[in-house]
Amino acid sequence: MQQTPQRTWLGALCVISAALFWGTLGPIMHILQRDTALTAIDISFLRALMGGLTLLVVARVWRPSWLHVARRDLPFFAAYGFLSVAAFFVLYATSVHINPVPVAVVLLYTAPAFVAVASWRLFGEPMSRAKVAALVFVLLGSTLVAGLWSATARHVTLLGLLVGVGSAATYATLGLFGRVALRRYEATTAMMFAFLFGALFLTPIVARDAPAILAAFRTHGVLILIMGLIPTAASYVLYTLGLKWLLPGQASILATIEPVVGTVLAWLWLGQRIDALQILGGVCILGSVLILQRDIETTAEAA
């Protein structure tokens, strides 16, 4: 779809809204891991399952035609669910487990660089100076927000590095698959099938934890439903919808406001401390968004 100033603003609004919703995930996961016997991968499975079922209900009630895809496209959606949901969720959960959390976060937010290169090669998305500057600000800001300077962040193994980069690479596939899926399907349909396939791939991994999962539903069922709705179903659909009007590289940079939102919410909800360097990192990330938004407007006006 051709970019225009009005459409790019709509796309940016969708992606930024998605990032705001994603920012609620950290505090929710913290509560679930603190109060239940769920592992990070159990929570990832519940995200995929509840996100897929939520969108299934939405499609059934709102537009039943969204429930159907062509049989020939099922392998595409299986790959979408495997890479963008199952593999990403597992790799990121593993990265957080074996790496210091600041390192896991910063490695994840190298994803915009993967997306920018892939989108340039696959979709002809231009690599402007403004976009390169935005990528630099994103990496710097993520480093500061995550607290990469701390002593605990210095203990990184080669395995941890590879897993962290793998989480970024699989996260990067979200925008690439989404861009292709939107050529034929609505965002709700695309993410519904991706989540359900992702949950299917994760089922063998979490099967032995079924008692813990059922117990968590009994005590924290409402929170699990909220997790499936806000930082999963709603956020991913909004992000994918934004790809109608933005290129994947643009969307991935805009979405990096998520760690800023997560840090602020952790401060508000959980009483976690924010220091001056984290605030500076947030300013860098917001600056990258402003740089990119101006570049998007310039590109749209020239189209």
From TrEMBL:
Determine if Membrane is one of this entry's keywords: yes
**Does the record carry Secreted as a key word?**
no
Any one GO cellular component localisation term in the record = membrane
- Note the InterPro entries from the entry: EamA_dom, EmrE-like
User: Which superkingdom is the protein from?
Assistant: Bacteria
Q: Where is the EamA domain?
A: 10-145, 159-292
Keyword set, alphabetical order? Membrane, Transmembrane, Transmembrane helix
Q: Name one Pfam family in it.
A: EamA
What are the transmembrane regions?
9-32, 44-62, 74-95, 101-120, 132-151, 157-177, 189-207, 219-239, 251-270, 276-292
Q: Which family does it belong to?
A: Belongs to the EamA transporter family.
**Protein name, as recorded:** EamA domain-containing protein
